[in-house]
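During the first year of the project, the team set up a workflow for recording each protein of interest as an amino acid sequence followed immediately by a discrete structure-token representation. This format lets reviewers and collaborators read both layers of information side by side without switching files. As required by the reporting guidelines, we include two representative entries from the current panel. The first entry is reproduced here exactly as it appears in our internal archive.
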Amino acid sequence: MFGAADSVAAAGIASKLSRPGIASAFAAGAAVGILGGLIGLGGAEFRLPLLIGFFGFAALQAVILNKAMSLIVVVTALPARLISIPYDTLAPYWYVALNLLAGSLIGAWLGATWATRMRSSTLYRVLAALLVLIAAALAWSHYAQIEPLALDPVVRVIAGVGAGVGIGIVAALMGVAGGELLIPTIVLLFAVDIKIAGSLSLVVSLPTMLVAFARYSRDNSFTVLAANKTFVLAMAAGSITGTVLGGLLLGVVPTGVLIPLLVVLLLASAVKVWRHT
């Protein structure tokens, strides 16, 4: 678990963030947001490697910062999503959200607990492996034909809880909302239209992230947020701006070109994080 030395290091990073540094944080957030917006996601999986490789945060610090910014992005995205897909449309699917939350809340607490107890070198390796997992999920969800599984209702509930636990763990460990895993899972297990699945994923993500955030708040490394408040707000603002721009550009870049590039970017990031010391 990180201690006072890491808090001092975090404060040192904050003190070095001059106006150009804040501008860099906003620009990096905007770039991440555009990438996420182009594929209908928040882009936190692209933000994590930047926090580690470009801005120089330690693994656990980067995860906590990423979680805080993901929370801000999701809170702002949910009302906008409810405008495009009203509550009345989502209400019949309340059981889907509850089923996944039954597992994801547990998974979020477990994932955050494991992250705070891992050696830093181990956490880098875990994050690298999860970036590869996200790359595979991204490619599969866009190129594979996702056909809903014909499951017995009891089996479906059990599978939903199990999937929720796994997604909650991954989301907590990476500091992401988990939409790249939630959306295909909702379509696969519950035969829900992909647009409705996108909104349901936000409904599941928000309380799941809050649980992980609450667990991280009990760790000493949580001080990285207080030491870097301006940085967090600047990068989160950039992410929100970029997500809107990416959404407006949706369809401009052909999926056949965009998805392979993003997969390669995630895999390259995984290699960089794996080798990080």
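The second entry, processed by the same pipeline in the following quarter, appears below.
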Amino acid sequence: MQNKNIGFIGGGNMARSLIEGLIATGHASDTLYVSEPDSAKRDYFARQVGVQLAADNADLVASCEVVVLAVKPQVLKNVLLPLQSVLQQQRPLILSIAAGVTSGDIDRWGGGGLAIVRAMPNTPALVGSGATGLFANAAASAAQNDTAESLMRSVGVAVWLENESLLNQVTALSGSGPAYFLLFMEALEQAAVEHGLPAETAHLLVLETCLGTAKLAMESEEDLPELRYRVTSPGGTTERALLSMENSNLRDIVNKAFEAAAQRADELGRILGERDG
């Protein structure tokens, strides 16, 4: 992947994190291209990052072996339709990080027969700790899949899925997951303040507890229930708190939230992929 020209259509936060991750892992900045209408973002990429600025989307596709679709899902169709000719001529690997839009719709809008990998990253990719689900269509080669995986691994971990519909489950888990944890952290911090802890102290302790727990789980060979058991002394404070959560049907709340997110991801995919007429 080091010698491939990689182009980003769209220069938002996720594109920026991927570009910076690629450069940090040794990819030459002059082999990275960006097509972005916002002048402030273009200036940042040119002056601060040193990547190539494409004159337009077609020029970018003509110059790159990998094209990353980093635009909002709602505009993806309008981005791809004018590019059909150059896409059919160049046949780049298309890596889409546009949530919800299926590989079939991307292929149809791009003229058909294209190598496509869909990626569902999450916002911790902005700090190099992302979690991404990947799905490749039948036209993508093993080498192209390796390229897509290496690209996404520049900002965290990446896992492959055999069924594209499972990207909706990934969306409900790791895609939306940071918001779930942030809500719990917010509630825990609020409870601590309401019970007398200074706000700054509560905030710091919540952040460090969350970070430390994730690090502990990542580095341990034990599964999550066993780790939880080890910090839950019989008759102690933790056991009492966990019992309160279980009595409040925490697991059912989480399951319903997961299901709601996955259903909405499926709905959005069908809405965005509606055929003309």
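For the second entry, the following points were noted during internal review. The chain is about 55% helix and 15% strand. Residues 69 and 96 are 5 Å apart (CA to CA). Both points are flagged for discussion at the upcoming steering committee meeting.
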